[in-house]
Amino acid sequence: xxxxxxxxxxxxxxxxxxxxxxxxxxxxxxxxxxxxxxxxxxxxxxxxxxxxxxxxxxxxxxxxxxxxxxxxxx
Length: 74
Description:
alpha+beta; 2 helices
């Protein structure tokens, strides 16, 4: 018998998007490495990949995080 039970964290009413199964879940069903969230509603969770793409694009274009320029020109 295992001393520590490894389980998912979270609770009902929290919504997640599983990137492995490409589906919305209430409460975490899949492991943390395979999901995005929590989100407040199933609709928000359904748009998780779109939200992630938008945020990634914002971060890539943020001048504070430009590694291709020398520090003196920032």
